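User: Can you predict the 3D structure for this chain?
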Amino acid sequence: MTGLDVIVIGGGVAGISAAAELSRRCKVLLLERESQPGYHSSGRSAAYFAPAYGNDVVQVLTRESTEDYQHPKDYFDDQLLEPRASLFVAEAKREDAIATMQKAQPWLQRLEGEALRDLVPPLNASLSIGLLDPEGGDLNVHAILQGYQRKFRAHGGQIRFDAQVVAIESKSAGWEVKLESGESIHAPNIVNAAGAWADQIASVAGLQGLGLQPKRRTACLVQPKPEWQTQSWPMVIDIDETVYFKHESGQLMVSPADETDSPPCDAQPEELDVAIAIDRYQRVIDHGDAKPSHTWAGLRTFAPDRTFVVGPDPRTEGFFWLAGQGGYGVQSAPAMARLATQLVLGQPISDAVKPVLHRILPDRLL
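Assistant: Here is the predicted structure, written as structure tokens:
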């Protein structure tokens, strides 16, 4: 291909949303090593929009994505966000953690005793205090990925699946990317949105990685008791974020919020982690005979400071990072795509993001 402005490497939600945004002003090619978009982390996420989740940088980018998900543009052919509150629960002895969270996020509503069980009747009696965030919701990840693909192609963008990158070389006019198929592609700019493989892609380009660490996250489905009306339940998270669960397709999706270091791979669930998920779930819900009906795992990739990595690599020209989403990539994708585009094209940064930009740029990790 000739005349390209940007090559985006990685077809998860971060890469496809950024490619779609960039394609409005540039000629863009997206390379994805798998046969479909969002195969790894994006397609295995909790699919939840949680404005109160993550650190303050994550919260800024999530809130900047709210309008995109509440009122999607017409290239999305389905509703993207189905409202569902989130409920953080704790025993009385964890009053300090509840107070700390509410101080940082004063819009959260404090609930006690029976008010908690009005929302989730089978909560264990030991859980006596909680914080309710009414702003969350279930995300339709399939519709999000399909909509961004539609937008990308409508602006002339091209996607190559099964496109394994084997070499990246700096040239006088930019970058040469070589594929396993033997094809070579040239462009002045590369966006590294390779998820768990982002440090590997940097290494292929002759750059030392930033210390990004993929971590395995386990999930399973549990069949609720017939009398439970789980469709109306909020997403429930224990105050220490060691377990969470929510309604999903008539069942409860349960995760122990595990973070086990892993190499980049097609992650698979471990029996022990599934057992831990069920045990922690039963500490929150009175469901003694709970059993997993389906299990899976995905990778969440973190920077050393657990904050996004977006922007130009200061060691070379035309190499940009869009990585380290740490499990918050779907909920923050619209704002992250705009930020990546602004940084690639040298455009003004939005006022909401400016105060935290120094904590996102990759140079902080060098």
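The mean pLDDT is 94. The first strand starts at residue 6 and ends at 9.
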